[in-house]
Design goal:
Elements lengths: L1 H41 L8 H4 L9 H14 L1 H4 L8 H5 L18 H10 L13 H14 L14
The protein binds heme C (HEC).
The site of heme C (HEC) has 22 residues, from helix 3, helix 4, helix 5, helix 6 and helix 7.
Length: 164
């Protein structure tokens, strides 16, 4: 009789643990599609700049004032990666092991339109965070003007005095 109880309790144990295992499995199965859905959502969307944005002309003239303002904003939001002088060797870029292009080299951005630069700055790209709502469009165009000025020897940005 004792033996039967022992066997019964063992069976019961197995039963319980078996049952528990099954619920585990069901929970896992239920969790799987959710995980897959999460994966699908984070799959990078191919980066495409809308042609109408790429073609958009820069509405802000590269005046000394625009470049000076662009320089100031660039100093706050961009220099940590792209380098204070645009050489691409900012501290954060080094920390993140990013290899960035040299904005001082005229060849770097010769095939990129102002509109494309605007789009990348506003939306971000790859490891570059988006500027989003931190900048009004004119603020972004100022930064485009500043970056362009870095490769123009005739008009060194260094000579532009910062306002304020
Ligand atoms: C966290 C580092 C980081 C910060 C901060 C950052 N960038 Fe970038 N930037 C990148 C990376 C990385 C790329 C290359 C993206 C790619 O092609 O995948 C890039 C690309 C660019 C490009 C396109 C040309 C190129 O070099 O590929 C421009 C223009 C640019 N950044 C301007 C800016 C401006 C202006 C700011 C500040 C508002 C800024 N970036 C802030 C990392 C950064």
């Amino acid at each position: 009789m004792r033996k039967t109880i022992a066997i019964l309790s063992i069976l019961a144990l197995f039963g319980i643990s078996g049952g528990a295992q099954q619920t585990d499995k069901t929970a896992q199965q239920a969790a799987k599609p959710a995980a897959q859905a999460g994966k699908a959502a984070s799959t990078p969307v191919p980066f495409v700049i809308p042609p109408e944005v790429a073609k958009e002309p820069n509405p802000v003239k590269p005046t000394a004032a625009s470049i000076a303002e662009g320089k100031q904003m660039y100093g706050y939001d961009c220099a940590m990666c792209h380098g204070a002088n645009g050489n691409g060797k900012g501290d954060l870029a080094a920390d993140m092991k990013l290899t960035l292009k040299d904005f001082r080299d005229a060849a770097t951005l010769k095939d990129m339109t102002d509109g494309e630069m605007f789009y990348i700055i506003q939306k971000g790209k790859g490891d570059m965070p988006s500027e989003g709502d931190r900048q009004k469009p004119d603020g972004i165009w100022n930064m485009v003007n500043y970056i362009r000025s870095l490769s123009k020897k005739a008009q060194p940005a260094a000579k532009v005095k910062l306002a304020g």
